[in-house]
Amino acid sequence: MNIYIGNLHFKMDEEELRQLFEAYGEVSSAKIIIDKATGRSKGFGFVEMPNDADASNALTSLDGKEVNGRALKATEARERKEGEMPPRRDFRSGGGNSGGYERKSGGYNDRPRSNYGRE
Q: Domain residue spans in the chain?
């Protein structure tokens, strides 16, 4: 079973991740995903366990468990379909309270653009 493990401490390495899961059974692989630009952990990874019963036990035991001050998120990883890309966020739209271009509060920027306060 392939397991997604999220909310990892950014200084955790693959050996520590492997040891965390080996307490529940054999681990085939443990991989932490690294940001290509910075070379730092992205805070999530994958663990492969050949025995599904051991993997299920690890999932239930580790999901929500605090490790290095962070509550882990452990779920069964789902396979990507061929050509499937992860969803991308459109930062140009400025959605939510993330500092977008439009204000809904009636501020100065909500005036009509043609006059800019001139009569």
A: 16-40+51-68
